[in-house]
Each structure stands twice: as C-alpha cells, then as structure tokens.
Amino acid sequence: MPFRQRIERNGRLANPSYKPANNNDLLPKVDEMINYANEVSRPDS
Known about the structure:
By secondary structure, this protein is mainly α. The chain has helices spanning about 5-10, 25-40.
C-alpha cells in the first residue's frame, strides 16, 4: 500500500508540523552537496 494511502487512513502517522520544501530553495543546496560529493569521492585508479 502506498505511503499516502496509509497516512490518509491513519492520520496519526502524519507529522502535523511537516511542510514540503520549496524546490526553488532546495535545488541550490542539492547542487552544492553534489559538487562537494564529487570533490570528496575520487576513486583510486
């Protein structure tokens, strides 16, 4: 059963203070993390 359906059936599973992230705020942070990960993880060849 998908997660949304479980939350709709049982409201206690939902976090009342949850607010979805705005993609415009999230994407710059994701880009920063990806760039950092690319710098850190260099395979030995």
